[in-house]
């Protein structure tokens, strides 16, 4: 998984029907040499802009969605505790 | 998922039979440190050149195609709203 | 998918039995910031050295081979038309 | 797989229910050109901070967890022997 | 697949039970812009240190192992012929 900060919402009115109802956010990696890499993630655990989160990618991301047929490859799986200084 | 701009069509007369009928386009990543990376994507939601899109990659991409047997690893899953300034 | 040029054949007499009969070629990415990255691909559509091709990677690559048990992660799925100037 | 050093614990009180009980750690790649890349991994074999470990990523990572439904894409699969100087 | 040279053995006494009996080796990519990237691979075809090999990664790697439950994401699938000068 990667450590990322949520930095904004992403709006796409025209999209795959199976994606209706999902919240898309822009995440930016904040740890290690991949810092600054951005990806669009789906959030299902009510994370917010500014939160540092754990992002799972690939086929494992679909495991968060309760339906293996959703075309999503990156999801927020956890929000890192604020007092967890180490990232 | 990655944020990309569609920058052209890709034509391949000789290709896998299972790919007949699909529209291939060149996409270029436009956000974060991967900016400038290009990939060929399949579009099934009538996106056009110049559109900023959300691209899903890997096994999740096949979930857009209604047939898990298609040898495609990147698809357009959404078109980012024009008034979504943040990417 | 990535855009690559086929630049040579790769011979491996000792290999997995399930790979017997497949043609292996060296491909080099020719578009975007990944230009110059090389990968070994399987070709099943009679592509040749010098051809510009579309390469599918990951689990989707196995979809070209008619047998999900083949340990291959990159295949040629199309040959880009010669008059397709844009890549 | 990649060679990484475990450099800290990662705490996330709010996370997917299916992740309860798993131990998350920060790992940093320590071999080759990817040195310095960080990822969050799940450890199920009692590795500790400072250990050099073998990390498996992607769908193969879920094979460590006894449940294919867990949204995890990186796990520790082995602890490199201390007297294994070569990494 | 990637072209790599096997440069050493990797020993991990403490590891997942399902990995017992497998031979782990360090491989270094030797072709293209990823040259110098290292990964730990499983070898099941009696490759040796110094051999130039074809490495398959991801879910396809598990196809070499006869058991889809093994947490391995990179395996040697072929040894490149010594007289194959082109890599």
From TrEMBL, chains A, B, C, D, E:
In terms of Gene3D superfamilies, this protein maps to: EutN/Ccml
Q: What lineage does UniProt assign to this protein's organism?
A: Bacteria, Bacillati, Bacillota, Clostridia, Lachnospirales
Write down the SUPFAM superfamilies for this protein, in alphabetical order. Answer: EutN/CcmL-like (SSF159133)
Q: What's the protein name?
A: Ethanolamine utilization protein EutN
Q: What is its main location?
A: other
| Top-level taxon of origin | Bacteria
A single GO cellular-component term from the record reads: carboxysome
- Tell me where the signal peptide lies: none
Question: Which compartments is it annotated to reside in?
Answer: Carboxysome
Biological source species: Hungatella effluvii
Query: Which keywords are on file for this protein?
Result: Bacterial microcompartment, Carboxysome
